[in-house]
Amino acid sequence: MKSYKGYTQLVLRINGQMRKAVVSPNDTLLYVLREKLGLTGAKPGCENGDCGACTVLMDGKPVKSCIILAVEAEGHEITTIEGLKDTPIQRAFVEESAFQCGYCTPGFIMNAHAMLNTVPDADDHTIKEWLSSNICRCTGYEEIKRAVAKAQKIAGGV
Amino acid sequence: MGSIGISVVRREAKDKVEGRLKYLNDYSSPDLLYGAIKTSTFAHARIKSIDISEAIKMPGVRAVLTGKDLPYRFGIYLGDKPPLAIDKVRYFGEPVAAVVADSQREADDAVEAIKVEYEPLEVINSPTEALAESAVLIHEEMDQYAHIDAIKPEPGTNIANRTKIRKGDIKEGFEKSDVIIEETFSFPPSDHVAMETRAAVAEILGDGRIVIHSTTQAPFVVKNLMGAYFGVDPGKVTVISHAIGGGYGGKAGMQLEGLVYLLSKAVEGRKVKLVNTRDQDMITSPGHIGLEAKIRLGATKEGELMAAEILFMFDSGAYADYAVNISRAAAIGCTGPYRIPNVWCDSLCVYTNHPFATAYRGFGHIELAFVIERAMDILADKLHMDPVELRLKNAIAKGDTTPTQSVMDSNTGDLKACIRRTAEMIGWNEGTRIIAEDGKIRAKGFGCLWKAPAMPTNTDAGAIITFNEDGSINVHCGVVEIGQGIKTAFAQIAAEKFGIDVDQVHVIMDVNTSTSPHDWATAASRGLMMGGRAILSACEDAIAQIKHTAAQVLKCPEEDLHVWGGRVFVKDEEHIGLPVKDVALGYVYPDGNAIGGQVIGRGKYISRRLTGIDPDTGKGNPALEWTLGAEAVEVEVDPKDCSYRILKAACTMDVGKLINPTMARGQIMGGMAMALSFSKQEGFEFNDRGQVLNRDLRSYKTLRIGDAPEYLVDFVETPQGDGPYGARGLGEQGVIGIPGALANALSRALGVPYNHLPLTPESLWKKRRDNG
Description:
The complex is a heterodimer. By secondary structure, chain A is of the alpha+beta class.
């Protein structure tokens, strides 16, 4: 197992680009993304892994970047909201008004995007299971459910 | 071309789904210093000593402050709160010291090194305890606190405010009642849980000007209070509010701004950022008020309401903040939307050793409605009358009077239509309690809502309209975008007035108190009505200026001109005209001569004919407008363990005029979800020492996607005569009827009166057990 002591230069692969950052071993991935790399799309909501606002993808799987250390991300492919452009889920979120204040939106989109890639034909139960790791406090979730259904259609070419 | 009643996509949609919209904590700069606060581990204690000697020596630390350094007492209505505790702490989580350092980590480390010694005092854990004869005083020096006239603190007690309503003759009302019910209700303090925690950045410039960036719903209030609290000239204070990640009332008033200013002052005016952690946002910063209430409600045997005697004992927590006005608002609306001729209400704002309370969506009305709507069902049961019928019979209408004896005017919405439509949507007549084959019980519950803004009588809004070379419009208005979609609605209102595409209207998103026209606050669901009126007035002013210039060019009287669809033209000879873009920045003749200059539309609106209320009777006219509506809930309960699912939530609201149907639906569904979450599963859990046990989002459980019901939403449109295009406020209202409706559904399902929130399966089961 690799060990880190003191500040270390990391090379992280983020949104297809190699990014360098000098980090402390106890810096979270969220902190490094936001404060060292200028990628502020992932939001701090609880910094306790409870709300999902900081969700990013690590090798295509959603992770809560507030409870992952930056050093753990080395060697993995990281995708943040800044790495998604005009994806079905983003289009569907706009069309279905699946947000109000928008603070939870990047995290929700990252999680939903990963779900659509992993289980394209996710049923209601699966959708609830995946997306229950994110909190939205503004909507009643109906628009988010509709956006996911619409993105499934868009992605499936229906 | 119409822009009103169309579901225009919100302006900032693309930025939101791409993670590009910047919230305050997304901004950073190399010159920032970072603040951190040390909070109390006791709910009520004398501070024996604070040792900062180690903290001040730590690397990167620029300043360490304690209460002794900051001899202030603040409060928006009642000046009771020091920015850092002085001599004693009054709630678990209260700030006792603060650090400024070069980095957040260094600031946090220094906070850990501060040592505080406490001498515990008796803890007051409820309004009832606080009102006991023998209760220890939480604010011994209440008689020295400054307060506004409308607030009536009672020194020598724990009562921060008492509002009285005396309408009709309560004794006679009960004498005329054939049926009387008497009940008590309660819920604990809870939290807004906006996904973005509060944050503020302050710096003091060389010439003494103060610049504050804040996650505030009320930048102009902050500016004004900076003057009142610190003796600073408000003109030297600039408050800037960016996109806000949810407010729900929790970001109104003064939040972190005062303290972060003091931190900046301690480091020679350098720029300091202070961001709440989640647990600080939940307990150190203010949350949702708690309540204990008693009601007696009397009616004739035909179900006509005759008398209501109501005692509200609000759990304000350790400080008054907005709570003293929430308790007042609850008194003003104490009957709910029902015609009751005889009313007696005392609404008390009571200090306890709980985290303190501030504005929360519904502002007194979600609280009062829980009490009234449960009481209506209990009364209906006793009358052997259908609860919907009882509501229809007593629904307030034009010509009736409110608890403050003001008359519901011709702008009154159609509550009966709302009740009927909601009953239809939820299938009320198809049965309100059905036992399925598997033993599960499906039950329905009903709850009405009303709300008026609780705001100063001189509440205002302003708008400025400027033009671009392409003829498009810039709208500046001081209402803050907190997710409600107000900026998009404003664009629609301006586009409708000019007859242009809504894409031709640019709305300035950030609010800056030095450049935006004055606006009271983004609170009280008054943004659409008041900001909308100001924008309409600015449009009219701009149109008059366009006509003035165009009349000279077209050689015709101004009054013969019309501005529509990007042109100014002669009404009866439409082909004679000019593009607005050729006039709006001054008209230039072919020979180079220019006239008119740029068009700057100025608009304003101030609330009309509002008054305070009489201190002895509550008589007065404090309400700008009342939004009325009816809600219902259907649940499926497993009687074995009292677990349940919320199947449906329905709401019909009389919104006057729909400006943007999708966004209006979104506000209402979101409100219902928030209230379902609140009444089903939220609320602080305290130990007997007044410490909050559930102060993270793992143990404080908010509604998740899997818990969301099917929503049924509909609208009635009885125009608000003085609203923009007839619209009235709807942002908060969706929450109001839901707690009562849910409690009514569960009470019906299990045959047990559920009068205390939250309605967790465990609490349902315990109550049923205790009831035998």
